[in-house]
Amino acid sequence: MTQPAPASRRAIAFASVMALIGIAVTVSLGIWQMQRLVWKQDLLARIERRLSADPVSLDEALRLAAAGDDVEYLRVALSGRYVEGANLYLYSIGQGGAAGYEVFTPLMTAPDQAVIVNRGFVPQDQLDAIATPPGDRTIVALVREPGRQTLFTPDNDVAGNRWYWRDIAGMTAEFRATALKDGTIEIPQIAFAAEPDAAPGWPRAGATRLDIPNNHLQYVFTWFAFAVIQAVVFLIWFTRQRRLRLADAGDRE
Fold this sequence. Notes:
By secondary structure, the protein is of the alpha+beta class. The chain folds into two domains: about 10-40 and about 215-250; about 75-195, no CATH class. It contains four helices and seven strands; from the N terminus they run αβαβββββαβα. It has a five-stranded mixed β-barrel. Helix 1 (about 10-50) packs antiparallel against helix 4. The chain is elongated, with a radius of gyration of 29 Å.
């Protein structure tokens, strides 16, 4: 049986470079996923600590935010009066996969201060049936920082009152142009998502997703496994090429 000819030096060099690049890329992705794992574990631990802690005052939350501290998911006690009929609708998917909206309404916490509250989820077919709770309200809410528009997120339809990402600056501007025309009213650039309560009807408080998945460990194993597989396959191929070249050199003698 004729022995296969070895690859040329150029082909071996090219294959070596490509193998090294592939291994470097997969190792880098594995390291990145390790960093993401640490970040996600820290985030989940921080959320758990904050959800189990007593709520702080609005003044304390705003002080921490102004100092540059991380206030995401901080529990805050809010008291005030919702502005009648001032609702903005953020597209969302509720429990069970039903399409609907999260309802954002300004809450007057003082004559010169309002905060934007995510009152909860409402199914699409119930949107016209929601009402603004009258009178003074006291709620506990989670701090939510402004969202970010991704490459696949549509632009917010401000004119049609259909929002697709948590644009707090845009919502503030829209509230100022409609319900809060007094330019002296202070509106912090964070939102507050109401915690679940026993209130009947819609919107249903507690729209914030807290069961954040953490799959980074399996991604770490996956990328490092790819790196090992590439290295093993290349070593087997390279060893075979070396033997072929040695055998070819022996045949010439």
